[in-house]
């Protein structure tokens, strides 16, 4: 499984466009992707700040999401001021029922899209997580 928290900053005056993109992304993600568990957007307290909680059955489902036509079809550069993706892992017994984030090896027969996604969004499990299972 792969769970992420996206820390998002948007450009001033782009709030309506950003929220329309998010509405479309949620609609298409749940309508066309089988591996999505959670996909939620939130406004932060700081102006122009948003968060996204994304959880997928595995990192391949996340990579599929990132490379999908509905994801690649939006002009994110027009609205984003910055974004940082943070892989997160549920605390045992307190993580909303989500399974642990795992980083399986890229299969030898992986598609070019999956290889590109692996390069763009590498998953690294912090060593301290294993002691906190």
From TrEMBL:
Pfam families noted in UniProt: ABM
ABM domain sequence ranges: 1-72
SUPFAM superfamilies given in the database record: Dimeric alpha+beta barrel
Signal sequence coordinates: none
Keyword Nucleotidyltransferase: no
Gene Ontology MF terms: monooxygenase activity
Protein name: Quinol monooxygenase YgiN
